[in-house]
Amino acid sequence: MATKIKYPDEYVIRVLVDDNPKRPGSRSHGEFALYKTGMTVSEYLAAGGSRAGINWDAERGFIAVEQPAAEKAKARKAKAKAKDETASASASAEEQAQEAAAAS
User: Domain of 85?
Assistant: First the structure.
Protein backbone atom coordinates (compact mmCIF):
# COMPACT_ATOMS: atom_id res chain seq x y z
CA MET A 1 0.00 0.00 0.00
CA ALA A 2 1.35 3.39 -0.99
CA THR A 3 2.00 6.12 1.54
CA LYS A 4 -0.45 8.98 1.29
CA ILE A 5 1.12 12.41 1.26
CA LYS A 6 -0.71 15.55 2.25
CA TYR A 7 0.84 18.10 -0.05
CA PRO A 8 0.88 21.62 1.42
CA ASP A 9 -1.70 23.96 -0.10
CA GLU A 10 0.96 26.27 -1.55
CA TYR A 11 2.68 23.49 -3.52
CA VAL A 12 2.42 23.77 -7.30
CA ILE A 13 0.95 21.16 -9.65
CA ARG A 14 2.63 20.33 -12.96
CA VAL A 15 0.72 18.17 -15.46
CA LEU A 16 3.03 15.54 -16.99
CA VAL A 17 0.72 13.96 -19.59
CA ASP A 18 -0.71 15.44 -22.77
CA ASP A 19 -4.08 13.69 -22.64
CA ASN A 20 -6.47 13.03 -19.77
CA PRO A 21 -5.72 9.40 -18.81
CA LYS A 22 -9.04 8.86 -17.05
CA ARG A 23 -12.07 7.14 -18.57
CA PRO A 24 -14.27 9.73 -20.33
CA GLY A 25 -17.49 10.41 -18.46
CA SER A 26 -16.10 9.29 -15.09
CA ARG A 27 -15.89 11.57 -12.06
CA SER A 28 -12.11 11.19 -12.06
CA HIS A 29 -11.98 12.30 -15.71
CA GLY A 30 -13.74 15.51 -14.70
CA GLU A 31 -11.42 16.00 -11.74
CA PHE A 32 -8.35 15.45 -13.89
CA ALA A 33 -9.61 18.06 -16.36
CA LEU A 34 -9.37 20.64 -13.54
CA TYR A 35 -5.55 20.42 -13.44
CA LYS A 36 -3.65 23.32 -14.94
CA THR A 37 0.14 23.45 -14.83
CA GLY A 38 1.19 26.12 -12.34
CA MET A 39 -1.92 25.99 -10.15
CA THR A 40 -1.48 25.43 -6.44
CA VAL A 41 -2.93 22.52 -4.51
CA SER A 42 -5.39 24.91 -2.82
CA GLU A 43 -6.55 26.26 -6.21
CA TYR A 44 -7.15 22.70 -7.43
CA LEU A 45 -9.12 21.82 -4.30
CA ALA A 46 -11.17 25.03 -4.57
CA ALA A 47 -12.01 24.12 -8.18
CA GLY A 48 -13.51 20.83 -6.99
CA GLY A 49 -10.54 18.44 -6.99
CA SER A 50 -9.67 16.10 -4.13
CA ARG A 51 -6.53 15.32 -2.16
CA ALA A 52 -7.07 11.63 -2.92
CA GLY A 53 -7.02 12.49 -6.62
CA ILE A 54 -3.77 14.40 -6.25
CA ASN A 55 -2.13 11.46 -4.46
CA TRP A 56 -3.40 8.94 -7.01
CA ASP A 57 -2.31 10.98 -10.01
CA ALA A 58 1.10 11.85 -8.52
CA GLU A 59 1.80 8.20 -7.65
CA ARG A 60 1.09 7.21 -11.25
CA GLY A 61 3.19 9.95 -12.79
CA PHE A 62 0.30 11.90 -14.33
CA ILE A 63 1.22 15.02 -12.35
CA ALA A 64 4.08 16.32 -10.22
CA VAL A 65 3.50 18.31 -7.04
CA GLU A 66 6.40 20.58 -6.22
CA GLN A 67 7.51 23.27 -3.83
CA PRO A 68 6.95 26.80 -5.09
CA ALA A 69 10.04 28.28 -6.76
CA ALA A 70 10.61 30.77 -3.92
CA GLU A 71 10.61 27.96 -1.34
CA LYS A 72 12.98 25.89 -3.49
CA ALA A 73 15.39 28.81 -3.65
CA LYS A 74 15.19 29.29 0.14
CA ALA A 75 15.81 25.57 0.71
CA ARG A 76 18.84 25.61 -1.64
CA LYS A 77 20.29 28.64 0.16
CA ALA A 78 19.80 27.03 3.56
CA LYS A 79 21.44 23.82 2.35
CA ALA A 80 24.39 25.74 0.87
CA LYS A 81 24.79 27.72 4.09
CA ALA A 82 24.78 24.53 6.18
CA LYS A 83 27.35 23.00 3.83
CA ASP A 84 29.57 26.10 4.12
CA GLU A 85 29.29 26.05 7.91
CA THR A 86 30.23 22.36 7.99
CA ALA A 87 33.20 23.00 5.70
CA SER A 88 34.31 25.94 7.87
CA ALA A 89 34.04 23.85 11.03
CA SER A 90 36.08 21.05 9.40
CA ALA A 91 38.76 23.50 8.24
CA SER A 92 38.91 25.06 11.70
CA ALA A 93 39.27 21.66 13.38
CA GLU A 94 41.98 20.70 10.90
CA GLU A 95 43.90 23.96 11.57
CA GLN A 96 43.69 23.35 15.34
CA ALA A 97 45.01 19.82 14.91
CA GLN A 98 47.92 21.09 12.80
CA GLU A 99 48.71 23.80 15.36
CA ALA A 100 48.64 21.23 18.17
CA ALA A 101 50.95 18.94 16.20
CA ALA A 102 53.36 21.79 15.51
CA ALA A 103 53.40 22.78 19.18
CA SER A 104 54.34 19.26 20.26
Answer: 69-104
